[in-house]
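User: Design a sequence. Structure:
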């Protein structure tokens, strides 16, 4: 019985909203990867949501370059999950893969407005 916190950021307003997604809606997220788009009408929002990342219960971040839904030690030089202190520093860190599984706790996404809705707004003004 998966449960996710879905954090959706709206780039137009600069605000984020948190949604608690339980079992029936959560099954739609399982198996999706970073970069995939889903319909946001399930949440009562117009448009689509593009998945940009997430983390598990222990706080290990998802990385788009690690395939699958596994935890893995990866040698990192920069990017998600590692901030180098010295120039040229590399370190082996534990990160999650790019696929959403039941082990994921938080899913991050960006709200993408549909082109149809933008045309209607332009006609109203």
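Assistant: Done.
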């Amino acid at each position: 019985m998966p449960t996710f916190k879905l954090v959706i950021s709206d780039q137009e307003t600069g605000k984020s909203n948190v949604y608690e997604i339980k079992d029936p809606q959560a099954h739609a997220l399982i198996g999706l990867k970073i970069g995939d788009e889903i319909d946001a009408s399930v949440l009562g929002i117009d448009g689509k949501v593009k998945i940009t990342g997430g983390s598990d219960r222990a706080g290990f971040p998802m990385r788009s370059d690690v395939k699958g839904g596994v935890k893995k030690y990866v040698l990192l030089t920069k990017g998600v999950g590692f901030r180098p202190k010295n120039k040229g520093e590399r370190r082996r860190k534990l990160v999650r893969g790019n696929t959403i599984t039941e082990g994921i706790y938080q899913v991050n996404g960006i709200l993408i407005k549909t082109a149809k809705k933008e045309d209607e707004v332009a006609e109203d003004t």
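The chain has two helices and seven strands. The radius of gyration is 17 Å.
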